[in-house]
Design brief:
This protein has about 325 residues and is an alpha/beta fold. Helices cover about 35% and strands about 25% of the residues. It has two domains: about 230 residues, Rossmann fold; about 60 residues, no CATH class. It is elongated and about 80 Å long.
Length: about 325
């Protein structure tokens, strides 16, 4: 594996028993150290299966996977020591308190020797728990039993637990699902801080497309195959276009002028002008009819993503 690649996947296949098709179908990609990488796709596309294989919770059918310099098949324990995982569904022990869940996790990772109570744990552990609990607003509930926690609180605890051992890679499977907006914002600020200070790699799957806008690269998976990979800006540029939107109280005159100037447009609520290979300022200067409405629309990653999935779905229906 190249030195700057912390994740490398080659020809990964996962086929479930009794299934006629592959859940993950011969995909390949790499993630660089310190990179923020997002894997997007509709339900059933293969993204959760992929992240489950990469985190050693699901056996692959074939292919080669290297995580943090370790082969997934030959060194699964070393892989697990190198990663932190925030799963979509909580994997907490409901018979323990929140702090006990964190403490036993830290002990299992070999960060600290076993201590039967929080009070006997080293100061570094106590400070880290306090820091993370305050970050997500759990400081008042950290010693309460898990069975008293709401769904959102369990999600926050999963996050605290996954970060306690300072992993090289954090796998985030729908990490902010169930979190309130303030907690979502606090979590992302903290994750970006950890990434900057520790060079931690972030691997995200999410249905909040605005979260993936911040990624260095995005990979879109559909029907088990990667259908697009690149920076968010490149994906948007390839599949959607910037639009100039204009209107006038004299709509008929504006329409006639656009036609006369051979400016192509689509008339919806307003007049939408595709700006591909065109200069917005020149178009505006060419319009003499007084405008009552003027703005540009830059496509979002969500719009590009939906366009890709739509094309893929229509293409498969035609096969």
């Amino acid at each position: 594996m190249p030195k700057n690649n912390i994740i490398e996947v080659r020809n990964l296949v996962k086929k479930y028993k009794k299934s006629k098709i592959n859940a993950v179908d011969d995909i390949s990609f790499e993630v660089k150290e310190g990179e923020f990488f997002a894997l997007l796709g509709p339900n059933g596309a293969g993204k959760t299966t992929t992240i489950s294989v990469l985190t050693t919770t699901l056996a692959k059918t074939s292919g080669i996977v290297n995580i943090a310099g370790f082969d997934l098949d030959q060194n699964p324990s070393q892989v697990r020591e190198s990663i932190g995982v925030i799963f979509q569904n909580p994997s907490l022990d409901k018979n323990l308190t929140a702090e006990e869940n964190i403490r036993f996790h830290a002990i299992l990772y070999g960060l600290y020797p076993f201590r039967p109570t929080f009070g006997l744990m080293p100061k570094a552990y106590k400070n880290k728990v306090d820091e993370l609990a305050k970050l997500l607003g759990l400081e008042k509930e950290i010693f309460k039993p898990i069975k008293t926690y709401s769904g959102g609180m369990k999600r926050k605890l999963e996050i605290v637990r996954s970060l306690i051992h300072k992993p090289k890679i954090i796998f985030l499977d729908e990490p902010t699902s169930g979190l309130d907006p303030i907690s979502r914002k606090s979590l992302w600020e903290y994750l970006m801080k950890v990434r900057e200070e520790e060079k931690t790699t972030l691997f995200l799957t999410t249905h909040y497309l605005e979260e993936a806008e911040k990624a260095d690269r995005v990979s879109i998976i559909n029907n088990g195959k990667i259908v697009k990979i690149g920076t968010p800006s490149k994906i948007k540029q390839d599949l959607t276009r910037e639009i100039l939107i204009v209107d006038s109280k004299k709509r008929n005159a504006l329409r006639d002028e656009l036609l006369k100037n051979k400016i192509k447009f689509v008339e919806n609520k307003h007049f939408d002008i595709d700006l591909k290979n065109k200069n917005a300022q020149k178009i505006i200067q060419s319009i003499k009819v007084p405008l009552s409405y003027l703005r540009t629309h830059t496509p979002t990653l969500e719009e590009a993503y939906l366009e890709i999935i739509r094309k893929e779905t229509n293409g498969n229906e035609g096969n």
